[in-house]
Amino acid sequence: MKTIFQKHLYLLIFIFISLIVAAWFLMVQNGEYGITMFFTIPISIGLIIGYIKYFREIEVWKICLTILKIIIGLFVFSLILIGIGLEGAICIIMAIPFIAFAMLVGFMIGSVIGGLDKRRYTGSVFLFLLVINPASYIFDQNSEPIRDTVTTEIIVNSSSDTVWKLLSTSILFNKPDFILFEKGVSYPKSIQLINNKGNLIYQCETNNDDINLNIDEYIENKKVRFSLENQTVPMKEVSPYEEMDARHLHDYFIVDYGEISLQKLSENKTKIIAKTQYSYKIAPKWYWKKWSNYILDRMQGQVLNSIKQQSEHE
Q: What domains are there in the chain, each with its CATH number?
């Protein structure tokens, strides 16, 4: 067995990595963005590269160059996926720093194992990788979502009555200058409060679609809380495809509710507080929590600044 691995080393490595990449591609296609895609598979590839450098005399700088080429290839590949309609690949681009780190960690672990494994039990290493990847996938499928809340505040030089008048009629929002919004992440363009058969709803136009926001709580001059009737569709604005379906957002990122509340500071000064509660299970959760919170804060800031400008010019 040892002789077979040494004799056909590169062929076996090519087959193994091809299987991993094929599994990775299927996960992208099915929108399954978890630990397996962003950590286990990259660390497996890095481990293999680090391990095999002890079979042949390969300089470390060449290994690092290989990893860099893989990352660049991944970036280009993600752009191609976006171009053919797999809009969720933008998440892969956002995760490239973490993927590169995982590959580097895998390379270091593989180097240590390669240095200690004098008898070259290559089959054991491959068997370990064949077990750990499916185990990681099973873990992803059974992980529970995490819930978090993002709060953004602004003080406007307007009375609470003036601000509430906007919230209870219609608002046109400014176009954001944040690159992710320009590349297809949904943001609101306008909202209008209407009475739909006795139920208050916001009709919301986004850059990608039109959605209804059900009003769950409505306290005059104080607070309005709403929930999405259906999750918004990302990247439709910049895609040549009429039908976009971000399957990775259906089960992995859900907005529970949004809320705008007013706090009267004086007759002509009001604090506006925007809040969004969401659930997510995109892994690694700590990494995507930072991204999600940052994007939501930017979006809420854009909403609040639009309200500020319009209320102060009433």
A: 2-142 (no CATH), 146-312 (3.30.530.20)
